[in-house]
Amino acid sequence: MYKKRLFTRTMMATAIALASHQSLAAGFQLNSQSATGLGRAFAGDAVIADNASVMARNAAAMTLFNAPAISLGLNVIDTDIEVKDANYTLSNPLTNSATSSNLDNEQIGGTSYVPNLYYVHPVNDKLALGVGIYSNFGTKTEFGNSYAANEFGGLTDVKSMNLTLNAAYRLNPQWSIGGGLDIIYGQGELKRSNKTIEGVLQYSTSVQGPLLDVDVDGTAVGFNLGTVYELNDANRFGLAYHYSPELEADGDIYAQQAGGQLNGQKLLMPLPDMVEFSGFHQLNNQFAVHYSVQWIEWSSFDVLKTNKDVTLNDYQWQNGWHYAIGGTYTLNSDWTLRAGYMYDTSAQDKKTSISVPDSDRQWFSGGFSYNLSSKSTVDFGLTYLMGKDVQATESTDLSNVSATTRADALLYGVQFSHSF
Q: Does the predicted model carry a pTM greater than 0.85?
Protein backbone atom coordinates (compact mmCIF):
# COMPACT_ATOMS: atom_id res chain seq x y z
CA MET A 1 0.00 0.00 0.00
CA TYR A 2 2.85 2.36 0.85
CA LYS A 3 4.43 1.71 -2.56
CA LYS A 4 1.18 2.56 -4.33
CA ARG A 5 0.72 5.78 -2.33
CA LEU A 6 4.27 6.94 -2.98
CA PHE A 7 4.02 6.32 -6.72
CA THR A 8 0.66 8.12 -6.82
CA ARG A 9 2.13 11.13 -5.05
CA THR A 10 5.01 11.22 -7.52
CA MET A 11 2.76 11.40 -10.55
CA MET A 12 0.40 13.83 -8.82
CA ALA A 13 3.16 16.25 -7.94
CA THR A 14 4.54 16.09 -11.46
CA ALA A 15 1.14 16.92 -12.90
CA ILE A 16 0.55 19.78 -10.48
CA ALA A 17 3.93 21.22 -11.30
CA LEU A 18 3.51 20.97 -15.06
CA ALA A 19 0.02 22.37 -15.03
CA SER A 20 0.46 25.15 -12.54
CA HIS A 21 3.43 27.37 -13.66
CA GLN A 22 -0.60 30.78 -14.82
CA SER A 23 2.86 31.85 -10.09
CA LEU A 24 2.82 33.22 -8.92
CA ALA A 25 -0.77 33.50 -8.99
CA ALA A 26 -2.90 31.02 -7.11
CA GLY A 27 -2.31 27.45 -8.22
CA PHE A 28 1.05 28.74 -9.33
CA GLN A 29 -0.33 30.34 -12.42
CA LEU A 30 2.24 32.57 -14.08
CA ASN A 31 1.03 36.11 -14.56
CA SER A 32 4.22 37.26 -16.18
CA GLN A 33 3.47 37.90 -19.86
CA SER A 34 4.97 41.41 -19.99
CA ALA A 35 6.81 44.00 -17.93
CA THR A 36 4.18 46.58 -18.87
CA GLY A 37 1.38 44.46 -17.43
CA LEU A 38 3.49 43.61 -14.40
CA GLY A 39 3.70 47.32 -13.53
CA ARG A 40 -0.11 47.59 -13.25
CA ALA A 41 -0.87 44.12 -11.78
CA PHE A 42 -2.22 43.20 -15.25
CA ALA A 43 -5.26 45.40 -14.67
CA GLY A 44 -6.93 46.08 -18.02
CA ASP A 45 -4.44 43.98 -19.96
CA ALA A 46 -7.07 42.37 -22.21
CA VAL A 47 -7.87 45.72 -23.81
CA ILE A 48 -5.23 48.43 -23.14
CA ALA A 49 -3.03 47.51 -26.14
CA ASP A 50 -0.14 49.87 -25.39
CA ASN A 51 2.24 47.33 -26.97
CA ALA A 52 2.13 44.02 -28.83
CA SER A 53 2.04 41.91 -25.65
CA VAL A 54 -1.75 42.44 -25.49
CA MET A 55 -2.20 39.36 -27.71
CA ALA A 56 -1.27 37.16 -24.73
CA ARG A 57 -4.52 38.25 -23.06
CA ASN A 58 -6.84 39.11 -25.97
CA ALA A 59 -6.08 38.63 -29.67
CA ALA A 60 -8.96 40.91 -30.71
CA ALA A 61 -7.07 43.95 -29.37
CA MET A 62 -4.60 43.66 -32.26
CA THR A 63 -7.05 45.71 -34.37
CA LEU A 64 -6.13 48.71 -32.19
CA PHE A 65 -2.71 48.87 -33.92
CA ASN A 66 -2.32 50.97 -37.08
CA ALA A 67 1.33 49.99 -37.72
CA PRO A 68 3.44 46.85 -37.25
CA ALA A 69 4.71 46.52 -33.68
CA ILE A 70 7.19 44.29 -31.88
CA SER A 71 7.75 43.81 -28.17
CA LEU A 72 10.33 41.70 -26.38
CA GLY A 73 11.16 41.44 -22.71
CA LEU A 74 12.28 39.47 -19.70
CA ASN A 75 10.52 39.01 -16.37
CA VAL A 76 12.32 37.66 -13.31
CA ILE A 77 10.52 35.92 -10.43
CA ASP A 78 12.29 35.68 -7.06
CA THR A 79 10.19 33.49 -4.77
CA ASP A 80 10.43 33.53 -0.99
CA ILE A 81 8.74 30.27 -0.01
CA GLU A 82 9.07 29.07 3.58
CA VAL A 83 8.03 25.80 5.23
CA LYS A 84 8.05 26.44 8.96
CA ASP A 85 6.94 24.93 12.26
CA ALA A 86 7.00 21.48 10.68
CA ASN A 87 6.25 18.36 12.72
CA TYR A 88 7.27 15.02 11.22
CA THR A 89 5.83 11.73 12.49
CA LEU A 90 7.19 8.31 11.55
CA SER A 91 5.31 5.12 12.48
CA ASN A 92 6.95 1.75 13.07
CA PRO A 93 4.50 -1.09 12.33
CA LEU A 94 6.95 -3.62 13.80
CA THR A 95 6.78 -2.11 17.27
CA ASN A 96 3.40 -0.42 16.86
CA SER A 97 4.97 2.88 17.89
CA ALA A 98 5.61 6.30 16.40
CA THR A 99 8.26 8.99 16.76
CA SER A 100 7.72 12.70 16.19
CA SER A 101 10.25 15.45 15.62
CA ASN A 102 10.19 19.16 14.90
CA LEU A 103 12.01 20.12 11.69
CA ASP A 104 14.02 23.26 11.04
CA ASN A 105 12.42 25.93 8.87
CA GLU A 106 13.15 25.40 5.19
CA GLN A 107 13.49 27.95 2.37
CA ILE A 108 12.39 26.29 -0.88
CA GLY A 109 12.05 29.23 -3.25
CA GLY A 110 14.21 30.11 -6.22
CA THR A 111 14.64 32.41 -9.21
CA SER A 112 12.92 31.93 -12.56
CA TYR A 113 13.43 33.83 -15.82
CA VAL A 114 10.45 34.30 -18.13
CA PRO A 115 11.21 35.76 -21.59
CA ASN A 116 8.56 36.93 -24.05
CA LEU A 117 8.36 38.08 -27.67
CA TYR A 118 5.37 39.44 -29.64
CA TYR A 119 4.78 40.80 -33.12
CA VAL A 120 1.60 42.39 -34.50
CA HIS A 121 1.19 43.04 -38.22
CA PRO A 122 -1.84 45.02 -39.45
CA VAL A 123 -2.64 43.77 -42.95
CA ASN A 124 -5.12 46.56 -43.60
CA ASP A 125 -7.52 48.71 -41.59
CA LYS A 126 -9.62 45.66 -40.69
CA LEU A 127 -7.32 42.63 -40.43
CA ALA A 128 -4.30 42.12 -38.16
CA LEU A 129 -2.06 39.07 -37.64
CA GLY A 130 0.17 38.29 -34.71
CA VAL A 131 2.61 35.80 -33.23
CA GLY A 132 3.82 35.55 -29.66
CA ILE A 133 6.04 33.44 -27.42
CA TYR A 134 5.51 33.55 -23.67
CA SER A 135 4.78 31.35 -20.64
CA ASN A 136 1.55 30.72 -18.75
CA PHE A 137 2.63 28.00 -16.30
CA GLY A 138 5.69 27.23 -14.15
CA THR A 139 7.23 26.99 -10.68
CA LYS A 140 10.24 25.78 -8.76
CA THR A 141 10.63 24.59 -5.17
CA GLU A 142 13.63 22.74 -3.76
CA PHE A 143 14.22 21.29 -0.29
CA GLY A 144 17.71 20.64 1.05
CA ASN A 145 19.11 17.12 0.76
CA SER A 146 19.12 16.74 4.54
CA TYR A 147 15.42 17.54 5.01
CA ALA A 148 13.99 14.63 7.00
CA ALA A 149 10.63 14.58 5.20
CA ASN A 150 11.99 14.51 1.66
CA GLU A 151 9.45 11.91 0.58
CA PHE A 152 7.16 14.98 0.64
CA GLY A 153 9.74 17.62 -0.33
CA GLY A 154 12.65 17.21 -2.76
CA LEU A 155 12.77 19.10 -6.05
CA THR A 156 9.87 20.32 -8.20
CA ASP A 157 11.05 22.28 -11.24
CA VAL A 158 8.75 23.22 -14.10
CA LYS A 159 9.08 25.25 -17.28
CA SER A 160 6.53 25.90 -20.00
CA MET A 161 6.31 27.82 -23.25
CA ASN A 162 3.30 28.98 -25.26
CA LEU A 163 3.54 29.77 -28.99
CA THR A 164 0.44 31.67 -30.07
CA LEU A 165 -0.62 32.36 -33.68
CA ASN A 166 -3.44 34.91 -33.84
CA ALA A 167 -5.66 36.90 -36.17
CA ALA A 168 -8.06 39.77 -35.46
CA TYR A 169 -10.77 41.39 -37.58
CA ARG A 170 -12.59 44.72 -37.15
CA LEU A 171 -16.31 44.22 -37.79
CA ASN A 172 -17.19 47.91 -37.48
CA PRO A 173 -15.91 51.01 -35.62
CA GLN A 174 -17.08 49.56 -32.29
CA TRP A 175 -16.57 45.79 -32.47
CA SER A 176 -13.51 43.63 -33.16
CA ILE A 177 -13.08 39.87 -32.84
CA GLY A 178 -9.96 37.74 -32.70
CA GLY A 179 -8.54 34.36 -31.88
CA GLY A 180 -5.86 31.84 -32.65
CA LEU A 181 -3.99 28.68 -31.75
CA ASP A 182 -1.92 28.13 -28.61
CA ILE A 183 0.82 25.52 -28.89
CA ILE A 184 1.87 24.65 -25.32
CA TYR A 185 5.08 22.85 -24.40
CA GLY A 186 5.66 21.80 -20.79
CA GLN A 187 8.67 20.24 -19.08
CA GLY A 188 8.83 19.07 -15.48
CA GLU A 189 11.41 17.54 -13.18
CA LEU A 190 10.57 15.92 -9.86
CA LYS A 191 12.89 14.29 -7.34
CA ARG A 192 12.07 12.63 -4.04
CA SER A 193 14.50 10.75 -1.79
CA ASN A 194 14.71 8.77 1.43
CA LYS A 195 17.51 10.05 3.63
CA THR A 196 16.56 7.94 6.70
CA ILE A 197 19.50 5.54 7.01
CA GLU A 198 18.27 3.48 9.98
CA GLY A 199 14.62 4.46 9.94
CA VAL A 200 11.38 2.70 9.17
CA LEU A 201 11.05 4.23 5.71
CA GLN A 202 14.28 2.61 4.61
CA TYR A 203 13.20 -0.69 6.11
CA SER A 204 9.84 -0.61 4.33
CA THR A 205 11.22 0.47 0.96
CA SER A 206 14.49 -1.47 1.04
CA VAL A 207 16.31 1.56 -0.34
CA GLN A 208 18.20 4.55 0.99
CA GLY A 209 18.64 7.46 -1.35
CA PRO A 210 16.68 8.26 -4.53
CA LEU A 211 13.05 7.20 -4.46
CA LEU A 212 11.78 9.26 -7.38
CA ASP A 213 13.49 10.81 -10.38
CA VAL A 214 11.00 12.09 -12.95
CA ASP A 215 11.75 14.08 -16.10
CA VAL A 216 8.76 14.38 -18.45
CA ASP A 217 7.56 16.70 -21.16
CA GLY A 218 4.67 17.08 -23.55
CA THR A 219 3.01 19.29 -26.15
CA ALA A 220 -0.63 20.17 -26.66
CA VAL A 221 -2.70 22.56 -28.82
CA GLY A 222 -5.36 24.90 -27.44
CA PHE A 223 -7.04 28.03 -28.72
CA ASN A 224 -8.14 31.51 -27.69
CA LEU A 225 -11.07 33.73 -28.65
CA GLY A 226 -11.71 37.37 -27.84
CA THR A 227 -13.63 40.52 -28.58
CA VAL A 228 -13.17 44.26 -28.06
CA TYR A 229 -15.92 46.85 -27.81
CA GLU A 230 -14.93 50.52 -28.25
CA LEU A 231 -17.57 52.78 -26.79
CA ASN A 232 -15.55 55.78 -27.96
CA ASP A 233 -11.90 56.85 -28.16
CA ALA A 234 -11.62 57.04 -24.36
CA ASN A 235 -13.58 53.96 -23.23
CA ARG A 236 -13.31 50.36 -24.33
CA PHE A 237 -13.89 46.85 -23.01
CA GLY A 238 -12.36 43.46 -23.76
CA LEU A 239 -13.47 39.87 -23.18
CA ALA A 240 -11.26 36.85 -23.86
CA TYR A 241 -11.47 33.08 -23.47
CA HIS A 242 -8.49 30.71 -23.44
CA TYR A 243 -9.16 27.01 -23.93
CA SER A 244 -6.38 25.02 -22.30
CA PRO A 245 -6.01 21.47 -23.64
CA GLU A 246 -5.29 18.18 -21.94
CA LEU A 247 -1.52 17.76 -22.13
CA GLU A 248 0.07 14.35 -22.60
CA ALA A 249 3.48 14.07 -20.95
CA ASP A 250 5.96 11.23 -21.15
CA GLY A 251 9.68 10.72 -20.61
CA ASP A 252 11.91 9.18 -17.96
CA ILE A 253 10.07 8.13 -14.83
CA TYR A 254 12.05 6.39 -12.10
CA ALA A 255 9.95 5.28 -9.12
CA GLN A 256 11.71 2.83 -6.83
CA GLN A 257 8.49 1.84 -5.08
CA ALA A 258 6.84 0.91 -8.40
CA GLY A 259 9.70 -1.25 -9.66
CA GLY A 260 12.21 1.31 -10.92
CA GLN A 261 12.16 2.70 -14.44
CA LEU A 262 8.62 3.02 -15.83
CA ASN A 263 7.88 3.13 -19.52
CA GLY A 264 4.83 3.08 -21.76
CA GLN A 265 2.50 5.24 -19.67
CA LYS A 266 1.55 8.82 -20.54
CA LEU A 267 0.15 11.23 -18.04
CA LEU A 268 -3.06 13.08 -19.04
CA MET A 269 -3.08 16.52 -17.47
CA PRO A 270 -6.10 18.82 -17.94
CA LEU A 271 -5.01 22.45 -17.94
CA PRO A 272 -7.39 25.17 -16.70
CA ASP A 273 -9.48 27.26 -19.08
CA MET A 274 -9.45 31.02 -18.45
CA VAL A 275 -11.94 33.84 -19.05
CA GLU A 276 -10.98 37.51 -18.62
CA PHE A 277 -12.95 40.76 -18.77
CA SER A 278 -11.11 44.10 -18.88
CA GLY A 279 -12.06 47.76 -19.07
CA PHE A 280 -10.07 50.90 -19.90
CA HIS A 281 -11.16 54.52 -19.36
CA GLN A 282 -9.09 57.57 -20.32
CA LEU A 283 -10.42 60.15 -17.85
CA ASN A 284 -8.40 63.07 -19.20
CA ASN A 285 -5.26 63.74 -21.23
CA GLN A 286 -3.03 62.46 -18.45
CA PHE A 287 -4.86 59.87 -16.34
CA ALA A 288 -6.55 56.55 -17.16
CA VAL A 289 -8.06 53.82 -14.98
CA HIS A 290 -8.32 50.16 -15.95
CA TYR A 291 -9.42 46.90 -14.38
CA SER A 292 -9.72 43.16 -14.97
CA VAL A 293 -11.60 40.17 -13.63
CA GLN A 294 -10.26 36.73 -14.54
CA TRP A 295 -11.75 33.27 -13.88
CA ILE A 296 -9.48 30.19 -13.86
CA GLU A 297 -10.96 26.71 -14.06
CA TRP A 298 -8.71 24.98 -11.53
CA SER A 299 -11.56 22.55 -10.74
CA SER A 300 -10.61 20.72 -13.94
CA PHE A 301 -8.11 18.92 -11.71
CA ASP A 302 -10.73 16.48 -10.46
CA VAL A 303 -9.04 13.20 -11.42
CA LEU A 304 -5.49 12.51 -12.59
CA LYS A 305 -5.14 9.43 -14.80
CA THR A 306 -2.90 7.88 -17.44
CA ASN A 307 -3.64 7.16 -21.07
CA LYS A 308 -4.32 3.56 -20.00
CA ASP A 309 -7.16 4.81 -17.80
CA VAL A 310 -5.34 4.18 -14.54
CA THR A 311 -6.61 6.65 -11.94
CA LEU A 312 -3.74 7.91 -9.82
CA ASN A 313 -5.53 10.28 -7.46
CA ASP A 314 -8.41 12.66 -6.96
CA TYR A 315 -8.07 16.43 -6.69
CA GLN A 316 -10.22 18.82 -4.75
CA TRP A 317 -8.97 22.09 -6.24
CA GLN A 318 -11.40 24.94 -6.66
CA ASN A 319 -11.85 27.53 -9.39
CA GLY A 320 -9.84 30.71 -8.92
CA TRP A 321 -10.45 34.42 -9.49
CA HIS A 322 -8.27 37.48 -10.08
CA TYR A 323 -9.53 40.98 -9.37
CA ALA A 324 -7.23 43.78 -10.51
CA ILE A 325 -7.46 47.56 -10.69
CA GLY A 326 -4.83 50.05 -11.83
CA GLY A 327 -4.05 53.51 -13.08
CA THR A 328 -1.80 55.05 -15.75
CA TYR A 329 -0.47 58.60 -15.56
CA THR A 330 1.20 60.30 -18.53
CA LEU A 331 3.74 62.59 -16.90
CA ASN A 332 5.00 64.15 -20.15
CA SER A 333 5.94 63.12 -23.69
CA ASP A 334 8.80 60.97 -22.38
CA TRP A 335 7.54 59.34 -19.17
CA THR A 336 4.45 57.29 -18.31
CA LEU A 337 3.81 56.00 -14.78
CA ARG A 338 1.55 53.12 -13.77
CA ALA A 339 0.43 51.24 -10.66
CA GLY A 340 -1.97 48.43 -9.82
CA TYR A 341 -3.38 46.05 -7.24
CA MET A 342 -4.60 42.47 -7.65
CA TYR A 343 -6.35 40.06 -5.29
CA ASP A 344 -5.87 36.45 -6.33
CA THR A 345 -7.84 33.56 -4.76
CA SER A 346 -6.30 30.20 -3.90
CA ALA A 347 -6.77 27.13 -6.08
CA GLN A 348 -6.19 24.68 -3.25
CA ASP A 349 -9.09 23.90 -0.96
CA LYS A 350 -9.10 20.82 1.28
CA LYS A 351 -5.89 19.25 -0.02
CA THR A 352 -2.65 21.08 0.70
CA SER A 353 1.03 20.47 0.02
CA ILE A 354 4.39 21.55 1.41
CA SER A 355 6.06 21.25 -2.01
CA VAL A 356 3.42 23.31 -3.88
CA PRO A 357 2.30 25.96 -1.34
CA ASP A 358 -0.75 28.00 -2.25
CA SER A 359 -2.96 30.68 -0.69
CA ASP A 360 -4.96 33.79 -1.45
CA ARG A 361 -2.48 36.47 -2.57
CA GLN A 362 -2.18 40.20 -3.00
CA TRP A 363 -0.21 41.99 -5.74
CA PHE A 364 1.23 45.49 -5.20
CA SER A 365 2.60 46.75 -8.50
CA GLY A 366 4.29 49.77 -10.02
CA GLY A 367 6.11 50.61 -13.22
CA PHE A 368 7.00 53.16 -15.86
CA SER A 369 7.63 53.64 -19.57
CA TYR A 370 10.32 55.81 -21.13
CA ASN A 371 9.97 56.82 -24.77
CA LEU A 372 13.35 56.54 -26.46
CA SER A 373 11.75 58.05 -29.56
CA SER A 374 8.31 58.45 -31.05
CA LYS A 375 8.39 54.77 -32.04
CA SER A 376 10.51 53.07 -29.36
CA THR A 377 9.71 52.55 -25.67
CA VAL A 378 11.37 50.86 -22.70
CA ASP A 379 9.12 49.57 -19.91
CA PHE A 380 9.93 48.50 -16.38
CA GLY A 381 7.57 46.73 -13.96
CA LEU A 382 7.88 45.68 -10.32
CA THR A 383 5.47 43.65 -8.17
CA TYR A 384 5.54 42.49 -4.58
CA LEU A 385 3.36 39.43 -4.19
CA MET A 386 2.22 38.72 -0.62
CA GLY A 387 0.74 35.36 0.35
CA LYS A 388 -0.77 34.05 3.57
CA ASP A 389 0.24 31.44 6.14
CA VAL A 390 -1.42 28.10 5.34
CA GLN A 391 -1.43 24.92 7.40
CA ALA A 392 -0.40 22.04 5.12
CA THR A 393 -0.60 18.35 5.97
CA GLU A 394 0.54 15.35 3.96
CA SER A 395 0.76 11.68 4.87
CA THR A 396 1.60 8.15 3.77
CA ASP A 397 0.78 4.91 5.55
CA LEU A 398 3.97 5.29 7.60
CA SER A 399 4.73 8.99 7.83
CA ASN A 400 3.06 12.36 8.24
CA VAL A 401 4.21 15.96 8.01
CA SER A 402 2.33 19.02 9.18
CA ALA A 403 3.74 22.50 8.58
CA THR A 404 2.91 26.13 7.97
CA THR A 405 3.71 27.30 4.43
CA ARG A 406 3.95 30.80 3.04
CA ALA A 407 4.77 31.91 -0.50
CA ASP A 408 5.79 35.52 -1.22
CA ALA A 409 7.58 36.76 -4.32
CA LEU A 410 9.24 39.73 -5.95
CA LEU A 411 8.65 40.04 -9.70
CA TYR A 412 10.42 42.53 -11.92
CA GLY A 413 10.74 42.90 -15.64
CA VAL A 414 12.04 45.02 -18.50
CA GLN A 415 10.64 45.28 -22.00
CA PHE A 416 11.45 46.98 -25.29
CA SER A 417 8.69 47.87 -27.74
CA HIS A 418 8.96 49.37 -31.22
CA SER A 419 6.45 50.31 -33.91
CA PHE A 420 7.44 50.51 -37.57
A: yes
